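Support reply, case 0932

Customer input (verbatim):
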Amino acid sequence: MYIVTTKTWYLERVIWMVAGVFTLTGTLLAWLLSPWWLVLTALVGINLIIFALTGFCIMANILHKIGFVSKIPQESDPS
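Our regenerated output:
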């Protein structure tokens, strides 16, 4: 069984937390106010897919700039 460490708040863990909060918030607002809030949930899903396919994430860049460190070792650029 794969269990992620919860000893520190590293970059990827914070991204998962933010994605979960935004998804639940969009779903709750759609249920309470308007179905148009599901657009927020869809945007979170699209961003997660883009992140998985390309490695680029706006939230990851923001969190990195404010000091969160990735748990995944970075590959060295051969160029």
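We compared this against your earlier run and they match. Two observations from our side: The mean pLDDT is 90. Residues 2 and 63 are 25 Å apart (CA to CA). Please reopen the case if you see a mismatch on your end.
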